[in-house]
Design brief:
Layout lengths: L10 E4 L7 H6 L4 E6 L3 H4 L2 H11 L3 E5 L8 H14 L3 E6 L1 H13 L7 H5 L10 E5 L11 E6 L4 E6 L7 E4 L9 H20 L7 H23 L4 H14 L13 H13 L3 H16 L5 H12 L7 H19 L16 H9 L12 H10 L2
Parallel strand pairs: 1-8, 2-3, 2-4, 4-5, 5-8
Antiparallel strand pairs: 6-7
This protein binds 5,6-dihydroxy-NADP (NZQ) and zinc ion.
Length: about 400
């Protein structure tokens, strides 16, 4: 087990009646606020008005950047950074899902950079400073509300890359499960897959040594999502279901379950290429990839863990052989994604063919090998994409 440091500095206000603390929280960082949001869902659910009321009653000045895209673009980051410089913004307030929060993180860094924000994402320039960030989360999925990364897309170059820095950790995040009641069935399903994938991809399916305690926590986190996602689909305003999904989202990726496990993200790297080339929803790409990835990496070394997953999470037959049990587990996971959550199961259904697979596979591996449950070369990645057709 590797040595590790655990520190998560985001202050979380969780629950129905916490927004009254927003003004005080923002005031800790200054007077001039840039409110960042997406395509308008926050207006439809009345959250925009509530946020503005809190900002104005705290005596703060508010500027706005709207229209952040799902799979946020570097061009939008540049627009936001320009506003920060011109209006001398003190603090950023992201109200929305992962895309809005990620875009806000990149803006926070770009506000201190005189150039194209893409340089910071690409890593040709470093994040040296960042404006403070406060978030109001409206979709349980990415964990961006409690982590220090953001994912930004450059549609011109078909690249979707992460910007990572401790400076981008939100100072505070407001998590009211009621704000997720309006999330569509599709986005609820995709968000739930994303939460699961953060656990699977990063820490759960690994050959690295894990603490038994952490393995149990991850199993329960996975079971929580498997239990509550269908309830949220059936009854979108079920507070208990939305609360469980929201808190699971934050804890899947806030560093706690890492506990000395090096984070490998094979499925995420493969999915980011799908989003970069075809602008698909992140969680949907993960749902299509994950069972195929597990099938591809299945061998006598990985089978016992995959089998255990099936037994612990889906109650598959423990008396099966390792191989038989692992296959049963993968079938149960596919059934959960494609029947219970109702997601499309193939890339062909999304209109994606194999024409870009070779270049996507090269890019996913970034000139080397993808590390994870089993190392993957570009040839392997291409084969997994083909299994998804
Ligand atoms: O834009 P608006 O109008 O707000 O609508 C959004 C968007 O169309 C809508 N939505 C959000 N909250 C809603 C709502 N609709 C109704 N009611 C609400 N309460 O949902 C749609 C999707 O929103 P988006 O923010 O794109 O979804 P998500 O939270 O899943 O974020 C996905 C992005 O995060 C990245 C993904 O790659 C993707 O770009 N990720 C970020 C990570 C991180 N920062 O750590 C890790 C993840 O692995 C992931 O890569
Ligand atoms: Zn993800």
């Amino acid at each position: 087990m590797n040595d590790f440091v655990f520190q998560n500095t985001t202050k979380v206000y969780f629950g129905k009646d916490q927004l009254k603390n927003l003004g005080t929280e923002l005031k800790n960082y200054g007077r001039r606020v840039l409110l960042v949001y997406g395509g308008g869902s926050i207006k439809k659910i009345g959250l925009y008005d509530k946020v503005l009321k809190e900002i104005s009653s705290a005596g703060l000045e508010c500027f706005e950047l709207s229209g952040v895209e799902p799979n946020p673009r570097h061009t939008t980051v540049n627009r936001g950074a320009e506003i920060c410089k011109q209006k001398k913004i003190d603090v950023l307030l992201a109200v929305g899902g992962g895309s809005t929060i990620d875009c806000t993180k990149a803006i926070a860094a770009a506000a201190y950079y005189d150039g194209d924000a893409w340089d910071l994402v690409k890593g040709t320039a470093s994040v040296v400073n960042a404006l403070p960030i406060v978030t109001v989360l409206t979709l349980a999925a990415t964990g961006s509300e409690m982590d220090c990364g953001g994912v930004i897309s450059n549609m011109q170059t078909h690249e979707k890359l992460a910007i990572l820095s401790p400076l981008l950790q939100p100072k505070a995040s407001f998590l009211n499960p009621e704000n997720t009641y309006s999330v569509s069935k599709f986005q609820t399903a995709c968000g739930s897959v994303d939460i699961l994938s953060h656990v699977f991809d990063s820490y759960y399916f690994t050959m690295q040594p894990k603490m038994d305690f952490i393995d149990r926590v991850m199993t329960d986190l996975i079971k929580t999502v498997v239990k509550y996602a269908p309830i949220a689909l059936e009854t979108p305003d079920n507070y208990e279901a939305r609360a469980n999904l929201m808190w699971a989202s934050s804890w899947a990726l806030n560093g706690f379950v890492a506990a000395g496990i090096d984070q490998d993200v094979s499925c995420h790297m493969m999915e980011h290429e799908l989003s970069a080339f075809y602008d698909i929803t992140h969680g949907l790409g993960l749902a299509i990839l994950t069972p195929r990835w597990l099938k591809y990496v299945l061998d006598e070394n990985t089978a016992p863990q995959i089998k255990k997953f099936g037994v612990d999470v889906f109650g598959t037959d423990p008396s099966l052989s390792d191989m038989g049990g692992a296959n049963a587990a993968i079938d149960a996971l596919s059934d959960f994604f494609f029947h219970t959550l109702g997601l499309k199961s193939t890339l062909s259904e999304l209109g994606i063919d194999d024409s870009n697979f070779p270049i996507m596979a090269q890019k996913a591996c970034n000139g080397g090998t993808l590390h994870g449950f089993k190392p993957l070369t570009p040839k392997d990645v291409e084969a997994i994409y083909r299994m998804c057709l």
